[in-house]
Automatic annotation (TrEMBL), chain A:
Aux/IAA proteins are short-lived transcriptional factors that function as repressors of early auxin response genes at low auxin concentrations. Repression is thought to result from the interaction with auxin response factors (ARFs), proteins that bind to the auxin-responsive promoter element (AuxRE). Formation of heterodimers with ARF proteins may alter their ability to modulate early auxin response genes expression. The lineage of its organism: Eukaryota, Viridiplantae, Streptophyta, Embryophyta, Tracheophyta. Coiled coil: none annotated. Residues 18-63 are annotated as: Disordered. This is Auxin-responsive protein. Pfam families: AUX_IAA.
UniProtKB/TrEMBL annotation, chain B:
It comes from Linum tenue. It comes from the Eukaryota. This is F-box domain-containing protein. GO terms for molecular function: auxin binding. GO terms for cellular component: nucleus; SCF ubiquitin ligase complex.
Length: 188, 651
């Protein structure tokens, strides 16, 4: 593990050494990687904010590499990984687009408890009225229809499936308008 | 010291026994006779059984150590001609009522008669380190054992610090037990290697076998479970809490015979594959004594609902996956089923529980004492809605996704809380917002004055917060704080966390177990050595400044039994400062410290009754002792060590 600059005989061999790395990239070895760092100097409080951030950043990268740290048993880590791969991050932000609007918005689905709350928020955000939902006829009384793209890539009508199922399958929202909206539950 | 201490207590007791034959009433609290005892949780067992197998009889001969008793000077006080001496049968009957291993160890040191009577009346033996003693010695010492608890690998094997083939194989023990304890009823193993061959051997050779508990063991597959289910006719307990077993499908559950109905405890919560729900339902409905049922994630909520309806007598339930979308009708049925369970004191499992589904468990929560929510990333609001339904809660495990707000809800709703464990939902996510901070732990301590056990994973902490916590809850017995970034200081003052742990050891006189973290200098260990007089277990990582740190601990902590250290600047001087101490401890672990092979050799030379083992890592310096594991033993050096584990001798 090379660190620092060797000035034997007054010659800076390291600086003139041919390597494939970027200039100066060989000097950061000392910071991260606590694993083999047995000789610890007397710890002093970090006075320079920027320095301590960088130190933390280096540690961050190396923390994932430290064997057995943090001390969590394997079966617990495995159940966490299975959970994370299903995409349950804190906050479920999805894009919302509206036909004719100049730019998209993003909302956090986790903030809403059910469909009425979500629709009220969308109506307020985009200044429209969604109409009354019924299973048979979809959204009646409006030329705007809220739809969403699910995991399979299909465009579905918002409101058909139970809220939890909607939360886990919704990838993005689109508020359709006008002629496109017809045929999507607007009348039989 | 133990010898003399016990003698003085028991001389007094003997005098009283002269007056009353009911001496057993004077011993520390004991429960009912072992043959009908309920399983004792692992962490409540003391390891003093091992002590009675070692000193103070240095010459334990092959006849079992009786000869050493003849030389004991204290025998003068008990004359064999004493007319008030109890016949052996009476003495054995009285001593048989003792459960506590500490009491039994003390009793065995009183005199030869008591030693003998205690040996013959002992039904359960606890061996905290399987290499501290051999099965032959155990069998000679205690001829009538019915229940064995064995622990194997060092605890850091849980975190992948111990090579896979390290050892702790149970098979050699089973071979001896088959001939010496053919009536063995219970076997509880922790961190041992168990093969399918061993499980089959167990199932076929012990006709009275009733209870098998495997915690953190590895080396077997569902095939081994099938052998147990097939052959153990009187099985009452099958408790498998695993990582590292081969899952070849759920057919093992079908191996219980159709007329088999004695099961009281069934836990397969960590197996990954599907079991047949019909088979499970039939098994549960015919086992009318079933009290503990913990299923795995493959069991749907529909199946769970049916299981609860057929087994409302359950006292402990581990639910399976809790994320299934339910229709209102299904939800009502599930809620009704939970309502039938009037005796539930433990609820766990609940993988990925949604808020909606969680409300179905409310009717079963009124007597709940232990709630384990650490398999679902609940938000603060969801926890706050659930807790008011659990007024009797004493133990709670959660993920840090509940945040400080969730912990405030704990403080507000759980006045009887004694234990809280907060695990990280995503340990490698530095930027996790809403994770827990020092405020959370303070909020819990304010609302829960009876708190005595805490395990807390966090990303930031302050000295002041910890001082507040122990001021609010001075009765801590277990204080385990893990600040996840190694060497991190107090985030408000940038000072080391020395004062935090100083306040813990100064205030909590009953402290038995301590885990430290954060930026720590030798001062932390000076405090520990000076104040932590009841501490038995200490875990240290990325801490300390010099050998002095460890020296303070070795010199000051008189009751220390287990010490595990990783990535600290402690070298040979530190290791050797504990020379006189290690024989009174179960074990010492030191990895990634500054110990060398020479230091280990000196230790091995000076203390021949210790095994000093070094695990070498590939490509490391020959002089360095990368991982050192030291433990006392009467069985001599291991004969089954793999090539990567060297037993250091003085040569």
């Amino acid at each position: 593990m090379e660190g620092g600059v060797a000035y034997e005989n007054g010659l800076n061999f390291k600086a003139t050494e041919l390597t494939l790395g970027l200039p100066g990239s060989g000097e950061t070895e000392g910071q991260g990687g606590v694993r083999n760092n047995n000789k610890r100097p007397m710890p002093t409080p970090e006075t320079n904010e920027e320095e301590s951030q960088a130190h933390k950043a280096a540690d961050r990268g190396s923390r994932a590499q430290i064997v057995g740290w943090p001390p969590i048993r394997s079966y617990r880590k495995n159940s966490l990984q299975a959970k994370n791969s299903e995409g349950e991050a804190s906050g479920m932000y999805v894009k919302v687009s509206m036909d004719g609007a100049p730019y998209l918005r993003k909302i956090d689905l986790k903030v809403y408890r059910d469909y009425p709350e979500l629709l009220k928020a969308l109506e307020a955000m985009f200044k429209f009225a969604a109409g009354v939902y019924s299973e048979r006829e979809g959204y009646k009384g409006s030329e705007y229809v809220p739809t969403y793209e699910d995991k399979d890539g299909d465009w579905m009508l918002v409101g058909d499936v139970p809220w939890d199922m909607f939360m886990s399958s919704c990838k993005r929202l689109r508020i359709m308008k006008g002629s496109e909206a017809r045929g999507l539950g607007c009348g039989v | 010291h133990l010898f003399i201490h016990s003698i003085s207590i028991f001389q007094a007791v003997l005098i009283i026994l002269h007056l009353s034959p009911f001496g057993s009433l004077l011993f520390s609290p004991f429960s009912s006779h072992l043959s009908s005892s309920s399983p004792i949780p692992h962490r409540e067992r003391e390891s003093f059984d091992s002590e009675s197998l070692l000193s103070p009889f240095p010459q334990i001969s092959s006849s079992g150590g009786i000869s050493a008793m003849d030389r004991s000077p204290k025998r003068r006080s008990i004359s064999p001609d004493d007319a008030t001496r109890f016949p052996d049968e009476v003495l054995e009957r009285v001593l048989a009522l003792l459960d506590s291993p500490k009491d039994r160890s003390a009793v065995s040191l009183v005199c030869r008669d008591w030693y003998s009577a205690e040996s013959w009346s002992r039904r359960h033996v606890f061996i905290g380190n399987c290499y501290s003693v051999s099965p032959e010695i155990v069998a000679r010492r205690f001829p009538r054992i019915r229940s064995v608890t064995l622990k194997g690998k060092p605890r850091f094997s849980d975190f992948n610090l111990v090579p896979d083939n390290w050892g702790a194989d149970v098979h050699s023990w089973l071979l001896v037990f088959a001939s010496e304890y053919p009536f063995l009823e219970e076997l509880r193993l922790k961190r041992m290697r168990v093969t399918d061959e061993s499980l089959e051997f167990l199932a076929l050779n012990f006709p009275n076998f009733r209870a098998l508990s495997l915690l953190s063991c590895d080396g077997f597959s569902t095939g081994g479970l099938a052998s147990v289910a097939t052959h153990c006719k009187n099985l009452t307990e099958l408790d498998i809490q695993e990582n590292g077993i081969d899952d070849f499908g759920g057919e093992w559950l079908s191996c219980f015979p159709d007329n088999f109905n004695t099961l009281e405890v069934l836990n397969f919560s960590h197996l990954n594959t599907d079991v047949n729900p019909d088979v499970l339902e039939r098994l549960v409905s015919r086992c009318r004594s079933l009290k503990v049922l913990k299923v795995n994630r493959s069991i749907s909520l529909d199946c769970l609902q049916r299981l609860l309806v057929s087994a409302p007598q359950l006292t402990e339930l581990g639910a399976g996956s809790f994320s299934q979308e339910l229709t209102p009708r299904q939800h009502a049925d599930l809620e009704h089923a939970f309502g039938l369970c009037k005796n539930l004191s433990v609820l766990t499992g609940l993988w990925e529980a949604t808020a909606m589904n969680l409300s179905a468990v409310y009717p079963a929560c009124s007597r709940l004492s232990f709630l384990n929510l650490s398999y679902t990333a609940l938000q603060s609001q969801e926890l706050a809605s659930l807790l008011p339904h659990c007024p009797c809660l004493r133990r709670l495990w959660v993920l840090d996704s509940v945040g400080d707000k969730g912990l405030e809800a704990v403080g507000a709703n759980c006045p009887s809380l004694e234990e809280i464990r907060v695990f990280p939902a995503d340990p490698f996510d530095e930027d996790m917002i809403n994770a827990v901070t020092e405020s959370g732990i303070v909020a819990v301590s304010q609302g829960c004055p009876k708190l005595h056990y805490i395990l807390y994973f966090c990303r930031q902490m302050t000295n002041a917060a910890v001082a507040t916590v122990v001021r609010n809850c001075p009765d801590f017995t277990h204080f385990r704080l893990c600040i996840m970034n190694p060497g991190q200081p107090d985030h408000t003052t940038n000072q080391p966390m020395d004062e935090a742990f100083g306040s813990v050891v100064k205030t909590c006189k009953k402290l038995q177990r301590l885990s430290v973290s954060g930026l720590l200098t030798d001062l932390t260990f000076k405090y520990i050595g000076k104040y932590a007089k009841n501490m038995e277990t200490l875990s240290v990582a990325f801490a300390g400044s010099s050998d002095l740190g460890m020296q303070y601990v070795m010199e000051g902590c008189s009751k220390l039994r287990k010490l595990e250290i990783r990535d600290c600047p402690f070298g040979n001087a530190a290791l050797l400062s504990g020379l006189e101490k290690y024989e009174s401890m179960r074990s010492l672990w030191m990895s990634a410290c500054n110990v060398t092979m020479n230091g280990c050799r000196v230790l091995a030379r000076e203390m021949p009754r210790l095994n000093v083992e070094v695990m070498k890592e590939e490509g490391s310096d020959d002089c360095k002792a990368d991982k050192v594991y030291v433990y006392r033993t009467v069985a001599g050096p291991r004969r089954d060590a793999p090539p990567s584990v060297l037993t250091v001798s003085s040569l």
